[in-house]
Amino acid sequence: MLVKIGPSCRFLRVATEDSCRLFQKVRMSQHIQAQRLEGIDKNIWVEFVNLAAKYMTVNLGQGFPDFSPPSFVKEAFIRAVSGEKPMLNQYTRAFGHPPLVKILAEFYGKLLGHDLDPHCNVLVTVGAYEALFCTFQALVDEGDEVIIIEPFFDCYEPMVKMAGGTAVFIPLRPKGDPLFSGNWQLDPSELENKVTARTKAIVVNTPNNPLGKVFKREELKVISDLCVKHNLFCFSDEVYEWLVYDGREHVRIASLPGMWDRSITIASAGKSFSATGWKVGWALGPDHLLKHLRTVHQNSVYHCATAAQEAVSYMFEKELALFGTPDSYFVQLPQELKQKRDRLAQCLTEVGMEPIIPEGSYFMMADISRFKTSVPPSNDADEPYDYNFVKWMMKHKRLAAIPVSAFYSTPHKKTYEHLIRFCFAKEDKTLEAAEEILQRWNYQQPRAP
Ligand code: IK2
């Protein structure tokens, strides 16, 4: 029992015999947490972000740029809070600040080849994370199955579970050279075999985190045909939509025939403008689906920061005017990141941590098999090898990455525990520091006989 004493707000913990007995009785008669939370209490980001901070690592772990967003992005925020419009400090429309939904409707209307109504087809959320949460909560029911393509952004599985559904997994498998992300493909008949009478939706993430695969139009067509044939929804997470390299095309599955009416498309200002801390995202879709996301949103988050939304609306106005030109940030950012990708790939190749070259996103997976001999095994037999490896690397080499098995379902984790993920959206000096660590480690590590 907690007893508050005095105006200084100090608390005195008083455990009386009665309160202890009452607590034990309640504990024995019921679960403390809701059953839908069972087995999802661990979170890769919470755990590894903490470790990276604890060991003060060179951080190629979590996916955020350590360089500044461009000045027009910072100026947009300053303008939004500078006082010209005092109402920008107050609540705004629940489902998206009017100037933002208007410009997003115009911008994505062109990309999707579909007229968007700002008020019915756009929902602004607290990052893409909240858009995903609203999607699963609104459209997945008790007993529904949701097909998830592996590797997958880790929160899809717990979000399906919290909605009462069951995740059904299908892996991308390398066909040809596994060191090129584009060669990791779905088997169309294996995918169709996953569809049952209970299947409600397929989750697509292109460009994919952590693999960096950019799904080709033909690959998306296989998925969209299946959605149409079996009357399924498609939840398409496209937060890395502008980060595609080597002339690849980002195709929006909602733009394929028969897909608009059954798709939710999710994107993120944080990823698109190198400002992940702003947490502005959105979901796009037909009103008959989006209205249910709005119900979840209005009863949970209600709306996201007004000034941040206003700022993002200025940024999109600029991007719309510059669309496709060399001055567009959506053109400049991938050019800058491609150089960083190539630099990290070269270093990893040289030290023998074979990289899988991503076609998109700002992540690169690498094979750690050659470095295994220098890392002692874990004391925990259940811990996937890559978790042990990355933890050891953070502690002893002061370099952070993310274990790739975190992006796989439990039965498949073992198959991919020889891989770790690096984020290359980092300052050149950060990449240089990582290179030095890897080169020194490679030089020192025992050679195979
Ligand atoms: N969807 C995907 C595929 C993401 O990668 C993210 C952000 N992930 O960043 C953590 C990492 O992988 O290192 C999101 C959704 C969430 O985006 P937002 O930041 O807009 O909420």
**Strand arrangement across the biggest beta sheet:** 4-12-11-10-9-5-6
> How many strands in all?
17
Secondary structure tally, helices: 14
Distance between the termini: 64 Å
* Overall 3D shape: globular
Task: Show unreliable segments.
Answer: 1-15
* Name of the CATH class of the largest domain: Alpha Beta
Question: C-alpha Rg, in Å?
Answer: 23 Å
Strand percentage, roughly? 15-25%
User: How would a crystallographer describe the biggest sheet?
Assistant: 7 strands, mixed
Helix content: 25-40%
* CATH architecture name of the largest domain: 3-Layer(aba) Sandwich
Tally of discrete structural domains: 2
Structural category is: alpha/beta
Mean pLDDT: 93
Which distinct ligands sit in these coordinates?
A: 4'-deoxy-4'-acetylyamino-pyridoxal-5'-phosphate
Q: Return the CATH topology of the largest domain.
A: Aspartate Aminotransferase, domain 2
CATH superfamily of the largest domain: Type I PLP-dependent aspartate aminotransferase-like (Major domain)
Q: What is the gist of this entry?
A:
With 449 residues, the protein is an alpha/beta fold.
How would you explain this protein's 3D organization?
- This protein folds into two domains: 44-66 and 329-443, Aspartate Aminotransferase, domain 1; 71-322, Type I PLP-dependent aspartate aminotransferase-like (Major domain) (Aspartate Aminotransferase, domain 2, 3-Layer(aba) Sandwich), CATH 3.40.640.
- The protein contains 14 helices and 17 strands.
- A seven-stranded mixed beta sheet has the order 4-12-11-10-9-5-6, with helices on both faces.
- Helix 8 links the parallel strand 9 and strand 10.
- The longest helix is centred in the C-terminal third of the chain and has 23 residues, at 329-351.
- The model is unreliable at 1-15 (pLDDT under 50).
- With 449 residues, the chain is an alpha/beta fold.
- The protein has helices at 17-29, 44-54, 71-81, 98-112, 127-139, 156-162, 188-194, 217-230, 269-272, 287-298, 306-322, 329-351, 385-397, 428-444, and strands at residues 2-5, 10-13, 58-59, 122-126, 145-150, 166-171, 173-174, 184-185, 199-205, 233-237, 263-268, 280-284, 355-356, 363-367, 399-400, 402-403, 419-423.
- It binds 4'-deoxy-4'-acetylyamino-pyridoxal-5'-phosphate.
- Residues 62-63, 127-129, 153, 205, 209, 237, 239, 268, 270, 276, 279, 281 line the site of 4'-deoxy-4'-acetylyamino-pyridoxal-5'-phosphate (IK2).
